[in-house]
Amino acid sequence: MNPDKKWSVLIGAAFLMATSAVGPGFLTQTTVFTQSLGASFGFVILASIVIDIGVQLNIWRIIIVSGKRAQDIANAVWPGLGTFISILIVLGGLAFNIGNVAGAGLGLQVLLGISPVLGAVLAAGMAIGIFLVKEAGKAMDLFAQILGLLMILLILYVVVTAHPPLEEAVVKTVAPNKLDVTAIITLVGGTVGGYITFAGGHRLLDAGLKGESALPQVKTSAVSGILVASVIRILLFLASLGVVAQGLPIEATNPPASVFALAAGNVGYKFFGMVMFAAAITSIVGSAYTSVSFLKSLSATVRNREKQIIIGFIVASTLIFITLGKPITLLIVAGAFNGFILPITLSTLLIAAYRKKVVGTYQHPVWLTLFGVLVVLVMAGMSLQVFWDQVQILLAD
């Protein structure tokens, strides 16, 4: 692979991972947590960035060194485990994609004044168009980069108009007066949970990068992906903080739209529509591509008809949204899946990192292993706690 093409693939994988993470839920979470934690939310963002980088470095390194997709690695560790993980990720990815389609429809409603359903259909058509291009991988990379940069510029404008208290934000990022562990777990799950964890790694593998010689490039791409997502998160946090600091009321029905409108008037509201659309449609593309990549090893039909299956995935997500509206139950189930998927997949890959039949003579860094084990324990514990809380609520009802 020539240097220019390799660099394009690395940046493309980074933006695919980042824009897959930045969906409608990402925008809402950031705004809501800023409301409740104020400037101290900066510490939550900082903690989640550190965790996210550790998770991505572990997973991407092991995928590239082994030259295998995550489900194949899991099957090598324990026969059938890869199939189980694939089912979890595809179901979770489908449920989240319904929310992504809904978000894209909402974004186009704000921009064009059309119904969310028509907006969702148009967005799905655009996403499908990416996979009808002959070099779909290259088109997907470019699409993610352009819209990722667009989101950064639009949110930056809103930050400037919101006049956030930057000094307070910096101080409380390192010395918070409020701490919410659940917020950290939520951000981690939303940035590197479910299919998102594997979006960039599988993209690099499909582009031909594998083996220990590719590790320096993998590190660059993985860290870049987290940093792109984090820049968007920080800018959105600052925009929300500016509004909160002024004591302006943020509407509970659509917090991020309210922030954009309060900070920059009608122009800000239109910018929200563009950001929501960009966030949602790139997540549609990332979710469909990555979810189907987990089926490629399980079926020759999927391998031979990957583009058609990806298009079918997008069509199914859109039809479910049109038929059922916004399926809250499915989104709740998807969230629960994400909570469990990360500790399962990360622990599996950490075990694989010490199996010679998977990684050969490769020596996985001890610090990354220890970091990964810590994340597995924390995420598993929090997921079980959330699950138990939901059971208690159901029993109470």
Automatic annotation (TrEMBL):
Membrane topology designation: Multi-pass membrane protein
Transmembrane segments: 7-27, 39-64, 76-98, 110-133, 142-163, 183-205, 226-248, 268-289, 309-325, 331-354, 366-388
Entry-linked InterPro entries: NRAMP_fam
GO biological process, one term: iron ion transmembrane transport
GO molecular function, one term: cadmium ion transmembrane transporter activity
GO CC annotations, alphabetized: plasma membrane
Pfam families linked: Nramp
PANTHER family: SOLUTE CARRIER PROTEIN FAMILY 11 MEMBER, TRANSPORTER PROTEIN
Predominant location category: membrane
The name this protein goes by in its record: Divalent metal cation transporter
Cell division as UniProt keyword: no
Subcellular compartments: Membrane
Keywords from the named record: Membrane, Transmembrane, Transmembrane helix
Organismal lineage: Bacteria, Pseudomonadati, Bacteroidota, Cytophagia, Cytophagales
